[in-house]
Amino acid sequence: MPAITPQTNASLEDIVSKLRAGDDFVITGHVSPDGDCLGSQLALAHTLRQMGKRAVCVLAKDDPLDRPFSLLPGASDMVPAALYEGACGVFVAVDVPTVERIGDAARLLERAGLSITVDHHAVDTTMTDLVHVEPAAPATALMVWEMCLQLVGRPTSEAALCAYAGLATDTGCFQFQNADASAFSGALSMVEHGADPALVAREFFQYRTLASMRLEALAIERAVFSCEGRCVVSFVSAADMERLGAVKADTEPLVDALRKIAGVEVAVMLREQDGSVRGSARAKDAADVSVLARGFGGGGHTAAAGFTVEDTLEGALDQVLARIDALYGASA
């Protein structure tokens, strides 16, 4: 039996039973959605629609989806939560544990007849009627896929592709510490149901714009090392983004480039955005970057986490470097 949090009050089977009984669903993820978030939303929506139910995926913030996320089946039909005025019989939150992280979807949660959370981020609070959280799960998409199998027996290839994209991205293309046996067995099931691993690999891990490559060169050039070379931080400014014609998706691979540097155990990439700074953290071996992210009000997992610093880029860099020294100065 998988390890669950004390806040968990429902099994996946319990949640599947409630999904079978519902008719109108709103499915949300978190602000700044990643592949696991979007893949989980879309996989569940495809499966509920396969059952003849009405399911709408909403975006926590009214921000456009860049490639490769925009290529996921059903992504073009996602609706900003702030603009959705339809039915909300059952509200499902995937890959997000707190109301602060669902952004504009909070108002939909308030009017839902039943609310459900399926996630792998452990927190001390709950926001929905039913909660199922498995902190050790490689991805929320893997739990969603299990529910899809229970709901219909044979989910569509679109659902399988979305779930596979979620699983692949949250395990770093099956390279992070969380890529355990369940991740590979789940991936096998998704592929058997029509997911295309080559497509996901090409679009999510092998597709780079020229702007993204130029940002990577800047990130490597600006890298600041600490803790005897075990930790590295770099940054790109809003001016860099504008000058190179880059979009947010162009910055996603940068932290992994830092992580690959020999001897590095903790890598952090900072991106200036709208008066604040977004941080992405990655770890190798036994290092844990979730504690770093939580210190700034963010969250994530041992090997991958994110956070936002309400400061200038220079101020955020100073804060992050100081926090890294305090956390990992002895050993990461």
From TrEMBL:
Q: Show the PANTHER family listed in the entry.
A: BIFUNCTIONAL OLIGORIBONUCLEASE AND PAP PHOSPHATASE NRNA (PTHR47618:SF1)
Q: Which SUPFAM superfamilies match?
A: DHH phosphoesterases
Q: Which InterPro entries match?
A: DDH_dom, DHH_sf, DHHA1_dom, Oligoribo/pAp-PDE_c-di-AMP_PDE
Q: Describe the location of the DHHA1 domain by residue ranges.
A: 243-327
Q: Where are the bilayer-spanning segments?
A: none
* Name of the protein described by the UniProt record: Recombinase RecJ
Domain DDH intervals: 25-166
Record-linked Gene3D superfamilies: 3.10.310.30, inorganic pyrophosphatase (n-terminal core)
According to the UniProt entry, its GO molecular function terms are: nucleic acid binding
